[in-house]
């Protein structure tokens, strides 16, 4: 049994807490800590972040505070022998992530970055299709994540550099983490070209990156805070194209589109849990020293590589 505590009780903290509505022998929610007084819940509220991190009744913490607080909270939690699931991004820059990496790198199964789509059965099904079907080698991958903000709010975390704003830091981990699913090793992803545009608050409003995976797959990622992009992923194989229609927040009932030279069909994926509950269950099992198959969670090694690639993206190669 893993006893959880939630640090930060905004939208994502409450979403995570709702995953505990159905009792489970593998995990339980003990309470939360929040600087907000408007929490509207019957859950136990700890006095402070430090209080929940220091609590002997807490085995693992979920961190969903502002981006600029992640590094210190992760380090504090790990030093108190807590296991950690942290919302993205892990740090404001590669230097911060490297500091965390140096502390965690020799510890097994104590940390994951919360890219929840990786836990959904859709991810497993996609990779099974690519292994088992006669689609041929992957030639190119495209992945987009963008939404339109009606105006730039200078006090919004999305447009504040000190709070970890910008399209690449906030959204770039999604296409990059998707691309890394297809790398033989994390080191086999290299930047070919990258670009971005700044807005009036001096953060990147959108960006595009071109990567080379395994020295043969072209990967193109786009992110935006100014435009509603076609938020899908496309995988171009020699003999087929696969479209992931809901890559970043797949629902309980979803599907993949497959088109070959002579056929078009859909591969349906049905599940009885939302994507966040799948994530909670997988992480809890691992934190409880259970080995599970098809573990595509983002560990510290992959977080380190993703952060390094995002840092390169922001250098506009």
Keyword list:
five-stranded parallel sheet; Dihydrodipicolinate Reductase, domain 2; 317 residues; alpha/beta; eight-stranded mixed sheet; 9 helices; Rossmann fold
What does this protein structure show overall?
This protein has 317 residues and is of the alpha/beta class. It folds into 2 domains: 2-117, NAD(P)-binding Rossmann-like Domain (Rossmann fold); 120-272 and 300-313, 2-Layer Sandwich (Dihydrodipicolinate Reductase, domain 2), CATH 3.30.360.10. It has 9 helices and 13 strands. It has helices at 11-18, 49-54, 70-79, 94-104, 121-132, 167-171, 173-180, 275-287, 300-313, and strands at 2-7, 27-33, 60-63, 83-87, 111-114, 138-146, 189-198, 204-213, 217-224, 233-237, 240-244, 253-260, 264-270. It has an 8-stranded mixed beta sheet with strand order 7-8-9-6-10-11-12-13. Strands 2-1-3-4-5 form a 5-stranded parallel beta sheet, with helices on both faces. A hairpin with a 5-residue loop joins strand 7 and strand 8. Helix 3 (70-79) packs parallel to helix 4 and helix 4 (94-104) runs antiparallel to helix 9. The mean pLDDT is 94.
């Amino acid at each position: 049994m893993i006893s959880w505590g939630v640090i930060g009780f905004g939208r994502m903290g409450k979403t995570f807490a709702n995953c505990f509505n159905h009792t489970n022998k593998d995990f339980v929610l003990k309470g939360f800590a929040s600087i907000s007084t408007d929490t509207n819940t019957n859950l136990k509220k700890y006095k402070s972040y430090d209080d929940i991190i220091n609590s002997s009744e807490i085995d693992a913490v979920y961190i969903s505070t502002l981006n600029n607080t992640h590094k210190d909270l992760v380090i504090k939690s790990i030093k108190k022998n807590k296991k950690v699931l942290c919302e993205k991004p892990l740090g404001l820059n590669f230097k911060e992530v490297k500091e965390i990496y140096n502390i965690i790198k020799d510890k097994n199964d104590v940390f994951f970055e919360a890219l929840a789509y990786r836990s959904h059965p859709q991810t497993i099904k996609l990779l099974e299709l690519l292994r088992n079907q006669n689609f041929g080698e992957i030639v190119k991958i495209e992945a987009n994540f963008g939404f339109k903000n009606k105006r730039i709010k200078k006090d919004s975390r999305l447009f504040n550099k000190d709070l970890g704003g910008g399209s690449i830091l906030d959204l770039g981990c999604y296409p990059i983490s998707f691309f890394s699913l297809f790398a033989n090793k994390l080191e086999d992803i290299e930047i070919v070209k990258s670009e971005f545009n700044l807005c009036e608050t001096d953060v990147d409003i959108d960006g595009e990156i071109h990567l080379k995976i395994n020295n043969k797959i072209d990967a193109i990622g786009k992110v935006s805070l100014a435009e509603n992009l076609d938020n899908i992923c496309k995988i171009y194989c020699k003999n087929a194209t696969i479209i992931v229609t809901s890559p970043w927040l797949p629902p309980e009932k979803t599907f993949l589109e497959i088109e070959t030279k002579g056929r078009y069909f859909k591969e349906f994926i049905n599940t009885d849990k939302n994507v966040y509950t799948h994530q909670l269950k997988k992480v809890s099992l691992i934190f409880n020293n259970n080995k599970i198959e098809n573990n595509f969670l983002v560990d510290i090694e992959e977080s380190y590589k993703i952060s390094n690639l995002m840092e390169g993206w922001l250098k506009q190669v």
